Structure formats: structure tokens, C-alpha cells
Amino acid sequence: MTDGLSDLSGAELSAKLAAGETSANEVLAAAQARIDAVEDRVGAFLTRTDQLAAERAEELDAYLSTGAPQSPVAGIPIALKDVLTTNGVRTTCGSKILETYVPPYDATAWARLAGAGAVLVGKTNCDEFAMGSSNENSAFAPVHNPWDLDRVPGGSSGGSAAAVAAGEAVWAIGTDTGGSVRQPASLCGVVGLKPTYGRISRYGLIAFASSLDTVGTFTRTVRDAASMLQVLAGHDPRDATSLDVPVPSYADGLDRGVAGLRIGVISEAFGEGVAPGVAASVRAAIDRLEGLGASIGEVDLPHAAYALSAYYLIAPSECSSNLARYDGVRYGYRAPGEHADSIEMMFATRGQGFGPEVKRRIMLGTYALSAGYYEAYYGQAQKVRTLVIRDYEAAFERFDVLVSPTSPTTAFRIGEKADDPMAMYLNDIFTIPANLAGVPAISVPCGLDDAGLPVGVQLAAPALDEPTLLRAAHALESALALDLRPPILDGAA
Amino acid sequence: MPVEIDIEHVAKLARLDLTEEETEHLRAQLGQILEHAARVGEVAAADVEPTASPIPRANVYRDDMPEPSLPVDEALRNAPERDGDRFRVPRIAETGA
């Protein structure tokens, strides 16, 4: 029987697998049955990997039947954002320019999960090249939020968030450059972890903004986030920015609670633009943390108000440089027809291959880096980045964990902000500073608003202090004990 | 005030063909976005060091060990156009009269 398997956590599934109560084949069958039941309405996937998954589950069951030691990842159905390369499996970045690209190598993040026995169920939809906050910038189709199909799942890792919320995968990988894991996690009612910059290798993560891009996780519990991070974290000689520092045990101490922990509430947390339903749920979560014995204070990040401006210079600048590689020569789309020369071919290829948001950011970045404007824009933004980092350093002298809403609003309607880039960018106001500073942050569901849409609370910790971050998140999650089952699953097996 | 941008020049630098409609749309949108982004200029930061990467790294070296390379067929598999063991592209230089 596969009933209910799709709604179990990875830890629960792993225990059942270890006890011989289920098999990798059954767990996979449950995930695929769920995909069959809801995917035509959700649209979380760009590519399904049914046959590969079946072969993998078969191998795993043969291995598990020997009673050999088993990783907590073994047999868990996982969805992978389509910006991470998979050897032999199409990887599109949600872009027409890579629509038929089949990488000859695996991203390290995926290789590590695969090596530990994870089962890939498919590659998930996302905003083109991970640029967006609603998943509406996918060149292929929007993703629908399982809590309300007329609403966005958030972005850019919207497919990964929706897949986990709807039980189409137990876990998913996303990437977070300015909030692209935490914001969709918040809008879809799941746990989204962005670890410290450099904690997980970026090798095979197709680059958007290299000094900000971070591989992150989607799970339905904080414990599962710790399990995923355990496998993903660590040095990779193929990524010079990956940190060569020891990886602690993320499960140890998860249950130690928050008594005595100093938690700082960001002073803008309940400012203008934060929806009342979001503010109420986040306040209640902070009260809950206080009730659990944490000491609560207020903390100001004086330069946070400029973080969004700095981000929208730094990220597009890095994007314009990184995306120069799409030239129609070695891989990807090439504009059809005769071209007078290669330069003309490149202009046409890029003009036809990129969508509106990607063009907008390439143009912004090219402008910010161009002669005469570099110092005023990119150079100044990098200085503001230094000040944002100093704000965090000062805050973490007084507090162990910082708290704010993840997103100022719950899920908005598809199309609502599509023609207003500035309104869209403001979604990331609480998430961007952690990317600029490189510190770890997590979004944990903390309630529903009046419309029945999930609200997420964001916790942040100093660089490499994922143990404290996960401990606080786990304590909050346990105390809230929410039962988050999106309406799309009513009556679904 | 929205920032005025020479969109055609920037598009040329970025090697992007833009339609007339895209050009006008971008002119308006980039002007607005840059107006917001230009707020970084309000921060007094003359004596602040810029940050390029959040986790400071000096040069990172590894041992120079030979490893197997990608086979040619694998490397060329995604090529839009191939000519033997090479990528084929439209001409890249004047051939001379």
C-alpha cells in the first residue's frame, strides 16, 4: 500500500524503510501517484524522470534488502530545480535558450544526494535563470500554488516549493540568490533553508549571480532540512568558493530548545508594506519563542533599507557577466537562418532566446558596469554591501538569531505584479540582506492568514551557525505544531 | 527622477537584439528601477572598502593533477552546429576583397 506515504517526512520514511515496512519502490510509486493526481493543476515539473527513478528504486531495494547501513537520504523522492545540472537529463533553467540542453555532468549538490541514495523524480519549473519572485518568468509555464491555484507559488524556486507542498516530492533542492528558496517556501507553507554562502558547492549550479547564489533545501520539517544539509554541506575542490571547514552534526542538539537564546526582532519587521495577516502570525511566533524561554529584543539593521537597491545593482551586474556565455556557439539555442557573421548571430540568438526579465537584468547590469557609471552604481553598491555585513556583525554581538517575516505578503494572484518590476522586487526586502552578508537563514511556516494562505517566519544566524539556526527553527516548529495540508490534497491519497 | 539611459548603446554592449517595443518598455522600466537603485548613493561610504564576495577568500589553489577530460563527442553533443571535431559558426572575420 502506498496510502499516505507521500505525506510522511523524510525521517519517517527512512525509519519505515529501515524497518522493512515499505520499499523504495513503494515510496516512489506514492510520489508518482501524487504527481499524476495533481501535476496538471500545479505544474511544478518541467521534466519527469520516471524511468531513471524506477531503475534507482530497484537498485536501492536490492541494496536495502542486504541490511547494509542506510543513509537518511536513501529512497527519498527528491525534486531538483532545473538550474542544477543532471548528467544526461535535460536542464533548461526555465529558459528557451537552454530548452534542449543536456548536460554531460552532475552538479555536486545532486551528485552528493544521488550518492547517498536519493531518488530523482524530476526537474522543477522556475523563473528563467532563477530571476523572479513568482515563477511567472518561466519561459514554459507558470506554477500554481497548491494552496490556491490562482496564486503564485513564489519564486524563483516555485516548482520545488510547490512540489514539496503538494507531496509530489518529499524533498526538493532550490537555489537562493535574493530569497528564491525562503520566499516560495513561505508562500507554499514548507520549510526553506538557505545555508551560509559557500557551505554547499555551487559546481553545476548554472550561474546567475555568483557572489550571492546559494543552494538551498525544501522540506516539510526542520529535521529533514538538517538531514539534507548533512549530505549537501562540505568542501568541493570544483568550487573555489566552497568553504573548507568541518561540517558539524546538524541533528545533534536539534532538540535542545531555545531557553536562554537571544533572539533579535528586526525593527522593520512590522513596518509599512507588511500585510496584517503576516504581521499577526509572525508576532505570535515570536511570542511563542519567548514562551519557550528565549529572550527577545529589538535590533536595527541601519543599512537594510539600502540592501534592496544594492542587490538590484550587484545581482544584475553579475548576471550580465555570467550570461555572456549564451552566444549560440557551444550549446543552447542558436537563432535559425543565415547570419552575415557570428556577432550578428549572437545578437539574434540572445534577443530571441532570453525572456523579458532576463533581458531587463542583463541590460541593468550592463549599464551599471559600463564606463562612466561603474563607480556610482556597482562600486557604491559593493560598499553598501560592506555596511550591510557590518550591521549583521553588530547585531550578532547582541543576538544569536534574528527574526522577521520571510515575505511581506502571502501568495499573490498570478498576473497581479507581472508588469510592475519594482513591486515584484519588493517581495524580497526581508530575504536579500542575508544573501548580501552570506549568512544562513530559514523560513518556517508559522500560520495561515484570513484567506487561508501560509505565512512564513524567517530566522537568520551568523555565518556557519546552522546548528543554532536549525535548533531555533525546530523548537518553533514543534511548539506551533501546525497541520499544513493544502486544499488541493483534499481527498487525495 | 527616473534615470535617462541610452538603451540602444547598452543593448549593443550586451549583444542583445531588442524590438522597438522592448526598447521603449525597457527605457521606462530601467529608468524607474535605477531611480530606486541610485539610492545607494545616499549612503556615505567614501572610506568603506567594497565587498565582492561575502566570505573573504584569498587565492585558492589546488594541486595541478591531470584528470581525464570530457570526450570530444560529449563536449560537442550540445553544439548548435558541428564540423568534425569543431564548433561551426558563421564567419568571424572579413575575408578581404
Offer a concise description of the structure.
The complex is a heterodimer of chains A (493) and B (97). Chain A is built from 15 helices and eleven strands. Chain A is of the alpha/beta class and 493 residues long.
Describe the protein.
The complex is a heterodimer of chains A (493) and B (97). Chain A is of the alpha/beta class and 493 residues long. Chain A has two domains: 5-268 and 282-299 and 401-489, Amidase signature (AS) enzymes; 304-393, no CATH class. Chain A has helices at residues 10-18, 24-42, 50-64, 108-115, 158-165, 182-188, 222-232, 276-291, 304-322, 342-353, 356-369, 375-398, 421-425, 432-437, 466-480, and strands at 45-48, 77-81, 119-124, 171-176, 191-194, 214-219, 262-266, 295-299, 401-405, 441-448, 454-460. Chain A has an eleven-stranded mixed sheet, sandwiched between helices. Chain B contains three helices and two strands. In chain B, a hairpin with a 2-residue loop joins strand 1 (82-83) and strand 2. The radius of gyration of chain B is 23 Å and the shape is flat. At the A-B interface, helix 9, helix 10, helix 11, helix 12 and helix 13 of A face helix 1 and helix 2 of B.
Q: What's the layout of helices and strands?
A:
The complex is a heterodimer of chains A (493) and B (97).
Chain A: H1 10-18, H2 24-42, E1 45-48, H3 50-64, E2 77-81, H4 108-115, E3 119-124, H5 158-165, E4 171-176, H6 182-188, E5 191-194, E6 214-219, H7 222-232, E7 262-266, H8 276-291, E8 295-299, H9 304-322, H10 342-353, H11 356-369, H12 375-398, E9 401-405, H13 421-425, H14 432-437, E10 441-448, E11 454-460, H15 466-480
Parallel strand pairs in A: 2-3, 2-4, 7-8, 7-9
Antiparallel strand pairs in A: 1-3, 4-6, 5-6, 5-10, 9-11, 10-11
Helix pairs in contact in A: 2-3, 5-6, 7-15, 9-11, 9-12
Chain B: H1 7-13, H2 20-37, H3 72-76, E1 82-83, E2 86-87
